[in-house]
Structure formats: structure tokens, C-alpha cells
Design a protein that fits this description.
single chain, about 575 residues, alpha/beta, eight-stranded parallel sheet, six-stranded antiparallel sheet, about 25% helix, globular, binds alpha-D-glucopyranose, binds calcium ion
């Protein structure tokens, strides 16, 4: 609504100073549910096993909703739990509209959905859009003959003479991206494992089938999807060879630039179509978006904010633990215009505990990381066990590796088993995850880093997560406020303000192993108070107030305080 001429002067006098000091008014608008929600990724094989077969299941998840609620989780993203031969542990789907018997039944899912609703927790599923399992009935038909009804649902091509594949494209999981199928004498394309043939998204029937899968789950109460591997939906129809780069990758294949088989512009048309259907249900679309910079990330929101609401900022997971590096990245993402989506770990990368940890102060560093990404402007997606300081438990012998890329790339690539180990519920056998033999071994650290112990310890990583999440849910500045970087030349301490109307929260993170002294002058932001009121700190000296002119920080200290206007 535009102010009338008579009101314009009042508008300018009252509002402009606010707008300029708080950089943007975007957060004054009311938020969508997914902007205020905290998301939590569950790897269903590893969360909780209800029937003692060593594999987590839907009933197991259902039994842990109280824990998630108390932690401060508003939505869970469950990685694929659909019927699957489990070559890629569920990312090879053989039926999109069912639950794998190893995880339970559709009735179990209904119970979970109902119970989650009671807890105020939404469910997001994983939509594997790029490929199916080779055991999916679509592919079984497709490979049956060159004239099969679903032949064109996948990418089939003749090889080159002399038995060479159609071009030089390499699978990200090793070897050629083409597999020869002797039954029909052609090659099919797979960006991932040969058991994960790529769907042909240029075929409108494929497009409609997948859009309908999303509808099918919305009708069953699902609040959105995490879209798997969206970058790989389209391939150059001319099949140009990719440019070859120097050297070989961890599987011994030549390095290539995936120029002709990833990030084709057609991807965005599909995202817009999936978004239209999501909007009919008030659902959210989260993207597995590996991008090289913020400009590329920005494209996934869509030119008219009509693509993904939540493209994940996975660049965040690649940053070195350093105040200037995070400061620069956060500023770039915050300024880019999209709603940021921060992530520090997932089922494909080494756990944050190990990645940021220095081997000496890992617990303290885990608390700094929690306090960082959960207090930024944007939505956070947690990974199960991160709130405990769960660490990677990589296999030490090739014969123990479950993830096929770990067997293929051993010992350079050990696979992703290490970051997928069972949730550590207590210090008992198998960390309380199962009464049977767990599908992956539990690390020794479960003796100390587990839910039962950490709930009792006020200084635990878990209790830092709980306190920060509770602040985030109750403090409007932390939830909705603008982000204002402070002391931007400090090489060790990352600090910022979150401001919303009359409220401000100061976040101070010592990202170094040395004690630090900091000083804040918040007058330019309109705050004249000389002290902050402590909301949360990991320091051993806990005071109700902290002076802003001279603040002493212990190594890897977190300080969060509110600033009175
Ligand atoms: C995504 C998933 C990963 C899976 C791959 C193929 O990257 O996160 O776990 O292996 O897609 O579906
Ligand atoms: Ca089970």
C-alpha cells in the first residue's frame, strides 16, 4: 500500500531512519512457516530401530518425537524410506508411493504423520527426481525392448563404433556414465550408480509422473520435499563430450568439467512446475543445491521467487573454521536477496564435529558452530546427532565398507558410512539404537556423547543446542531480525547483531583457541546501552550483564545477549 500524499512526510520522517539503519525492511513482513521452522534431517536407517533388525524404521522415528520436540525441532526431513533395493541406501527408489518394508508400512507412516502433527512437527520427504532404481517397474519396462511403452522414459543411446559408450561422460560414483544393456543393444545413462538410471525429463510423461508423485504425498499430509540431485535432471541432447581437465579423480577416472550433463537451464522449468503444485498445499521445496557462489545459489529461488523456497547453502559446509571467512560468506548470502538456508552437515559429508574440530577443542567448537548457524537470519537444517557432537566413524577395513563408492574408491574414498552411524541415545550396548546388531558400528564416543548423558549435563553440546533453539523460538530479533555484522576487521571473533524493531540480540563467537578482548559501540545502530543482558553463554564466568566497552572472551567462547534500546 502506498502512503497518501499527506502521509508521505510522516512516513519519510518516521520510517526512513529505521530502514537505513537496519539495512532492509524485508523481515518486518510476516514469515512463512518454513522461515521460522528449524528442520532436522533424519537418516531413517540410523535413527531408531523399533524391531531389533539393526535398521532404523518409521516406528522408531515415531517413538522419538518427544525428544525432537524438546530439542526445538519443527520439521523433519526423512531421507528416502520408499521401497528400494538399497544399492544407494534408498536413493535408488523402486516405488515412489510406498514405504520400504524394512522401514515399515504406509499405515506406520500415517501414524507418524498424525503423531507428528500432534507434536507440531511437519514432515518433509526426499524426492529423488533425477533417477529411479533399475528395479523400478518403469525401468524394467523401458529396458525390455526398443519399442517398449516406457523406452523413452530413460536416456538410451547407441554406442560409438568399437564398443565405446556414446560419449566421455563420467559417473560421479565412478566409471563411465553409460552402461551397455545387451538385451536391446543400447547404452543407458546414469549420473550415479548403474543401478540408478537417469529419467528422461524431456519426456512429458516423466514430468507428469513425478509431479503426480509429489501430489500423492501432499495428500497424505507431507509438508514438502527435499529435492535430490536437481542439477542433474537434464543432459545435452547432442551429447557433446565434456571438457577433460588435468589429472584423475579418486576413482581413477579422468577429471571432467560436467558442462553438458549438469545445471542445464531446463532444470528451472521443472522447479517452477514442482513449485506450482507445492504452493497448492502450502508445501516447501528444499534443494540439494551444490553451487560455486552466491550468484549461482540465487538462481534456484527463481527470478520471481517461483522455484525453490529453500535452496540449501551447501557452500557453508566447505568453509574453514575462521571468523573472517564466515563473516565474508554470511554477508554475501545475506545480501543476495534470497532467504538463506544454512546447513553444516548431512549424510554425504564428514560430520561437522570432525570437519570444524581441531582435535583438541572439538566440543567447544561444536558449540560455536551451533551458536553460529542457529542464530543467523535464515532457516537452519540440522543433521541427526550433530546436536550431540556425534563424530565420523569411518571404516578401517575395506571389507567393512557398506557404501559402494567406499569400496570402489578405497582407500582414498572411504565412502559415507562414517557420517551415517546409529544415533547415540545412551551409553549402553549399541548406544540404545537397537536391540540387535546395528547395520553400522557405533563409535566409542557414544559413551560420553549421547542423549541420556547430555540431557543431564547443563554444559553439554545438546544443552547448547536446546538453549539456542529455545531462544530462536521465543526471541523475535533472533527469529525475524536483520543481520548486522560488527567489528568487521576482527580476525578471531565473529560478532553480529540481530535487530527487530526495538529489540536487538548480540552474538559474539570467539573462533580462536586464545582468550580475546572485544569492544562494541552500538550507537550507529541506535543502541546506547553500555551493557548486554546475558541470554546464553558457554563461558565459565557467567554474569547476568556483560559490559560492551570491554568484553573478555575465553577460548572458543560463545556469548549471546540482548541489548536494551
Ligand atoms: C544425493 C544424495 C546422495 C545420493 C545421490 C544419488 O546427492 O544426497 O546420498 O547418493 O544424491 O541419489
Ligand atoms: Ca528396524
Amino acid at each position: 500500500m502506498l502512503p497518501k500524499a499527506g502521509h508521505l512526510l510522516v512516513f519519510i520522517l518516521v520510517c526512513l531512519p529505521l530502514l537505513s539503519s537496519q539495512s532492509t525492511a524485508i523481515d518486518a513482513k510476516s514469515h512463512e512457516w518454513w522461515q521460522d521452522a528449524v528442520f532436522y534431517e533424519i537418516y531413517p536407517r540410523s535413527f531408531a530401530d523399533s524391531n531389533g533388525d539393526g535398521i532404523g524404521d518409521v516406528k522408531g522415528i515415531n517413538s522419538k518425537l518427544d525428544y525432537l520436540k524438546q530439542l526445538g525441532v519443527d520439521a523433519i526431513w526423512i531421507t528416502p524410506c520408499f521401497p528400494s533395493p538399497q544399492v544407494d541406501f534408498g536413493y535408488d527408489v523402486s516405488d515412489y508411493e510406498n514405504i520400504d518394508p524394512m522401514y515399515g508400512t504406509l499405515a506406520d507412516f500415517r501414524d507418524l504423520e498424525k503423531n507428528a502433527r500432534k507434536h507440531g512437527i511437519r514432515i518433509v520427504l526426499d524426492l529423488v527426481v533425477n533417477h529411479t532404481s533399475d528395479q523400478h517397474k518403469w525401468f524394467i519396462d523401458s529396458r525390455s525392448s526398443r519399442t517398449a511403452a516406457k523406452r523413452d522414459w530413460y536416456v538410451w543411446r547407441d554406442g560409438k563404433d568399437a564398443g565405446d559408450p556414446p560419449n566421455n561422460w563420467i559417473s560421479v560414483f565412478g566409471g563411465s556414465a553409460w552402461t551397455f544393456d545387451s538385451a536391446t543393444g543400447q547404452y543407458y545413462y546414469h549420473y550415479f550408480y548403474p543401478q540408478q538410471p537417469d529419467l528422461n525429463w524431456r519426456n512429458p510423461a516423466v514430468h507428469d509422473a513425478m509431479v503426480n508423485v509429489s501430489r500423492w504425498w501432499y495428500k497424505r499430509g507431507v509438508a514438502g520435499f527435499r529435492l535430490d540431485a536437481v542439477d542433474t535432471l537434464f543432459e545435452d541432447p547432442q551429447l557433446h563430450d565434456n571438457p577433460v581437465l588435468p589429472g584423475v579423480n579418486k576413482f581413477g577416472d579422468p577429471n571432467e568439467e560436467d558442462k553438458y550433463n549438469t545445471k542445464l537451464p531446463e532444470v528451472h522449468e521443472v522447479l517452477r512446475d514442482l513449485r506450482k503444485v507445492a504452493d497448492e498445499s502450502g508445501a516447501v521445496l528444499i534443494g540439494e543445491t551444490w553451487t560455486k557462489d552466491t550468484a549461482e545459489l540465487k538462481q534456484y529461488y527463481g527470478e520471481h521467487s517461483n522455484e525453490l523456497q529453500m535452496p540449501m547453502d551447501l557452500m557453508f559446509t566447505k568453509l574453514k573454521f575462521s571468523a573472517p571467512i564466515f563473516r565474508q560468506h554470511i554477508a554475501a548470502v545475506d545480501a543476495s536477496g534470497g532467504w538463506p538456508v544454512y546447513v553444516i552437515s548431512n549424510h554425504d559429508i564428514v560430520r561437522s564435529y570432525n570437519r570444524y574440530g581441531d582435535g583438541l577443542h572439538n566440543d567447544a567448537i561444536a558449540k560455536v558452530m551451533a551458536s553460529l548457524y542457529l542464530t543467523l537470519r535464515g532457516t537452519a537444517i540440522m543433521y541427526y546427532g550433530e546436536e550431540l557432537g556425534m563424530e565420523n566413524n569411518d571404516p578401517v577395513r575395506k571389507e567393512d565398507v557398506k557404501d559402494p563408492i567406499g569400496r570402489l574408491g578405497w582407500p582414498i574414498e572411504k565412502g559415507r558410512d562414517g557420517e551415517r552411524t546409529p544415533m547415540q541415545w545412551n551409553d549402553g550396548p549399541n548406544a540404545g539404537f537397537t536391540g540387535g546388531t546395528p547395520w553400522l558400528p557405533v563409535p566409542a564416543s557414544h559413551k560420553t556423547h549421547n542423549v541420556e548423558n547430555e540431557v543431564k549435563d547443563p554444559a553439554s553440546i545438546l544443552n547448547v543446542y536446546r538453549r539456542v533453539l529455545s531462544l530462536r523460538h521465543t526471541n523475535p530479533a533472533l527469529r525475524d531480525g536483520n543481520y548486522i555484522a560488527l567489528n568487521e576487521s576482527d580476525p578471531n571473533v565473529l560478532s553480529y547483531l540481530r535487530t527487530c524493531e526495538n529489540q536487538a540480540v548480540l552474538v559474539v563467537l570467539n573462533m580462536s583457541a586464545q582468550p580475546q578482548q572485544v569492544s562494541f559501540d552500538l550507537a550507529p545502530q541506535g543502541f546506547v546501552s553500555r551493557s548486554a543482558h546475558t541470554l546464553m553463554t558457554t563461558m565459565s564466568r557467567k554474569t547476568a550483564e556483560a559490559g560492551l566497552a570491554q568484553m573478555a572472551l575465553e577460548p572458543f567462547a560463545v556469548y549471546i545477549g540482548s541489548i536494551p534500546r
